[in-house]
Amino acid sequence: MKHDGKIALVTGGSRGIGKAISRRLAEDGADIILNYKSDSATAEETANELRELGRRVWVFQADMKDDKAIRGLSKSVKDEVGQLDILVHNAAFGTMGSILRMGLFSWRAAMDINVTALLLLSQQLSPLLAERKGHIVGLSSIGANMTFSEYACIGVSKAAMEALVRYLAYELAPIGIHCNGVSAGPVETRALDWFKWPDAVHRYATTKSPWSRIGQPNDLAGVVSFLCSADADWITGQIICADGGISMGENFHDWLTPEQKAELNKGK
Ligand SMILES: NC(=O)c1ccc[n+]([C@@H]2O[C@H](COP(=O)([O-])OP(=O)(O)OC[C@H]3O[C@@H](n4cnc5c(N)ncnc54)[C@H](OP(=O)(O)O)[C@@H]3O)[C@@H](O)[C@H]2O)c1
Asked: What is the CATH number of domain 7-265?
């Protein structure tokens, strides 16, 4: 398998997209270091599912907002695991709301968790990753490039993370480390509850995607696994968009008159 003998750290790996990524990397042969913030029961449940695949799993609690906790996580990876091939920064935070009324606490927390945590983990773990010609992947959002109502706090932090991915890719290539990002559209996880009207996000996603459905965690997992494989050795500093086609364009259907819609549907 493509990740046999490798060890992957996934931040926020206990549920949602992080869980799907951890599972896919484990199915592809990797042992997994699961990080989570507060829900130890779910983290242990996920860890046990991965162990059933025959993989070794370490579970390390650490809040990606706390630089001391990040240093502790890196130390645990170095001292207790001693090898790292893949670092996936998937944990994220954001407050929904108007940018004009965005509180500084929320703004700084998004920057800390979505951007600074990736910087610190890369600084602290790149010596270990370099020994294995490793891979770094950051989870981003199409809201980094497109504007969505009430999404500024997350969108701006993800745009900063995407820029960080490119700078990391540039600086880490000489020591053999690839760094890329994966950008998602709406995905059916608990994060959708951050929105005031999750049902509207659901309708938006299923309407805008030509595949007429919302993203699922597994839609991202295979892309991450591929980016961390030898098949992706010539890809670095890129943000791969996996959004079911949502961001590729517009259609005029929403602006058709009822008569035009009827004409379009004639014969269907
Ligand atoms: N869902 C979407 O529509 C969507 C769209 C675009 C991009 N993304 C991106 O995809 C990634 C995963 O999102 P998701 O929807 O899977 O989220 P999720 O379902 O809310 O899962 C979040 C995971 O991150 C952990 N976590 C949260 N805050 C953390 C912190 N401060 N430190 C460490 N771990 C933390 C959680 O652990 P606990 O359970 O212990 O708190 C959990 O394992 C994020 O980067 C997100 O921005 C998601």
From this structure: 3.40.50.720
